[in-house]
Amino acid sequence: MKQIWQWLKEHIKLVSLVILVTILALWQLWPAPSVNNDDLTVNSSKTAQKSASKPTKTATSKWLIVDVEGAVNKPGVYRLLTTARVYDAIQHAGGLTEQADTSAINQAQKLHDQSQVFVPDKNNSSTASNTAQTTSANTDSSPADTKTINLNTADVTELQNLPGVGPKKAELIIQYRQEKGSFSKIEDLTEVQGIGEKTFAKIKSQLTV
């Protein structure tokens, strides 16, 4: 035993080197940890669910369809950008004719899909037609002997013909129309600041859209 211990002391460097080489060899040959196939399946499933849960961008149409009629050179149905105004629709329809009455329309008004732009003729005094009128608009007619005011086409002066509507209220009606688009029904007038139920009740028989 003393001889072995003595030999180890004399060859300590060699013994240390052998031990180190043995450890490295065992580390290289040690089997890698196995991967559970079930775990791979679960992780793949979670990844697929995350991908599916991400909201996808839905394509929204940038076009609208408008019917342009009346005193224009090329009446018809046109496809315009959603940012188009009444003026753009008129230009697509070949522009105004010489008999067009532009005082009855708001060329800066925004358009909506399935709407109609009607440009009245100077020889036609009817104000029942609606600029940028949608297909769902109110079509009730008024008595022939009663002059009606079209909320969607009337200017400030015409609006002041309504009882209780002065310059300020007329301007608010125009402002509402420019910001929110055409009135779809006459009852929408009560959404305008300063137009209450009592005022509306007095003038509703003279209104149209």
UniProtKB/TrEMBL annotation:
The chain crosses the membrane at residues 12-30. Coiled coil: none annotated. Pfam families: HHH_3 (PF12836), SLBB (PF10531). It comes from the Bacteria. Keywords: Membrane, Transmembrane, Transmembrane helix. One of its GO terms (biological process) is DNA repair. InterPro entries: Competence_ComEA_HhH, Endo/Exo/Phosphatase_dom_1, Hlx-hairpin-Hlx_DNA-bd_motif, RuvA_2-like, Soluble_ligand-bd. Residues 119-146 are annotated as: Disordered. Residues 123-142 have a biased composition (Low complexity). Residues 157-176, 187-206 form the Helix-hairpin-helix DNA-binding motif class domain. GO terms for molecular function: DNA binding. One of its GO terms (cellular component) is type II protein secretion system complex. This is Competence protein ComEA. It comes from Bombilactobacillus mellis. The lineage of its organism: Bacteria, Bacillati, Bacillota, Bacilli, Lactobacillales.
